[in-house]
Design goal:
It contains 15 helices and eleven strands. It has about 400 residues and is α/β, with parallel strands linked by helices. Bound molecules: zinc ion.
Length: about 400
């Protein structure tokens, strides 16, 4: 039986290339050739941007949403599907879900950015300030994202999957009109009371019984936000699988499930039942802490979902490098990336996902990736090539 192992590369170099100008088929072919040369079998190709000042947010020629103007001249996403499939590599459309581009972005073909059309969708903080994150409670936005996914599947029917990122809240609660109303009606809490509860304000003055009641209030609010995200993933699952059960749904999530649910309202252990594979972004962890984390994640991921831990192949150190033993004390290099691939195998995960293509192939960061997400790692990509020498199909294939 042929080897099965997920070997994914997130790809964002095309955004840098498109923003620079003159992006064409040769550039896409180069990415496919490089990916093939090291034995990768999946490209997670960005089609909807994270929060950015490089809006518009879409990177294929959409008829529904706001795409970069150059995508109507040259469809790099259409080309990468053909070229990658010829090379035996899967292509998954990678969507940053709850982030929107710059609200002030100029119209493209008469269309305004979604948050300019629907300011009520934005996450709002205690002071009433709007963010460029959308609140997961808005069914209208959920349906907008669903319509983009349907468009991608209709336009590119041979696509292998949809990979979702930013499937969460920002690192704060939301007090949009929906959330204010829901939290008041369900839990009897005002905005200020909710913020104080979530911050644990005055908890040290409560007795044990009062503290228990307050923690139950906190739990109810946290669960409310988590349910909004959960419902969205279930909606995407139903929509994608109704289009074609062969199309895989996957997500990039925070690596620590215990804090992901509390800090960004992403209870991915709860919604991974809707995913074919999940990629916790175990970024910048020291090898020892990475091993411990991946062992735990492997134990809790449901049997029907493949665990492909995300590895940060990024040439910059974590802000806590040197201060906190859980993080690598320096910038990742190629030996670090190779060691993490080995550890994932030793733990028995069915694959891994590398962030990102450009930083392992020495592509200079551009306007989209920037220094933080685009600085190449030092070292020889042969270290990855050696580990992926034996051809493999992704573990989620039949
Ligand atoms: Zn909200």
């Amino acid at each position: 039986m042929a080897l099965k192992e997920g070997r994914a590369l997130w790809v964002e170099s095309q955004q840098d290339g498109i923003l620079k100008g003159g992006y064409g088929p040769k550039d896409v072919q180069q990415i496919v050739d490089n990916a093939k040369s090291i034995g990768a079998n999946m490209l997670l190709w960005l089609v909807k941007a994270r929060m950015t000042d490089t809006a518009p947010a879409l990177w294929y020629p959409s008829e529904i949403g706001l795409s970069h103007e150059a995508c109507y001249e040259y469809d790099s996403f259409g080309d990468v599907i053909k070229m990658a499939h010829d090379a035996g590599i899967e292509v998954h459309a990678y969507f940053s879900t709850f982030t929107e581009g710059d609200i002030g972005a100029k119209e493209v073909r008469g269309k305004k950015p979604p948050l300019a059309e629907h300011p009520e969708w934005a996450v709002v903080d205690r002071q009433g300030r709007r963010s460029e994150f959308v609140c997961a409670s808005h069914v209208g936005y959920r349906e907008y994202l669903g319509s983009l996914m349907e468009e991608v599947i209709d336009k590119y029917p041979s696509i292998d999957g949809i990979n979702i990122d930013f499937i969460r809240y920002p690192r704060s609660a939301c007090f949009c009109d929906n959330c204010k109303k829901n939290i008041k009606e369900r839990f009897g809490l005002t905005v200020d009371q909710t913020v104080d509860l979530l911050a644990g304000k005055d908890f040290d003055s409560l007795d044990a019984e009062e503290l228990g009641a307050s923690l139950d209030r906190v739990g109810a609010v946290i669960n409310y936000y988590n349910q909004n995200v959960h419902d969205t993933v279930e909606y995407f699952h139903n929509l994608v699988k109704a289009k074609s059960p062969k199309i895989k749904l996957s997500a990039a999530v925070f690596p620590n499930p215990r804090v992901a649910a509390n800090q960004v309202y992403c209870d991915w252990v709860g919604f991974s039942q809707f995913l074919d594979f999940v990629c916790p972004m175990v970024y910048w962890y020291s090898p020892a802490y990475y091993r411990q984390t991946v062992e735990r994640l492997q134990a809790i991921t449901p049997p029907g979902t493949k665990l492909y831990p995300g590895i940060s192949a990024l040439g910059v150190p974590h802000p806590l490098a040197g201060e906190n033993a859980n993080f690598l004390p320096k910038a990742p290099d190629m030996e670090y990336v190779a060691e993490l691939i080995d550890i994932a195998r030793e733990v028995g995960t069915p694959g891994i996902a590398v962030f990102q293509y450009g930083s392992i192939f020495n592509v200079e960061p551009g306007a989209y990736t920037g220094a933080k997400w685009g600085t190449p790692v030092v070292g020889d990509v042969d270290l990855i090539r050696q580990r992926w020498a034996e051809p493999a199909k992704p573990a989620h294939t039949d």
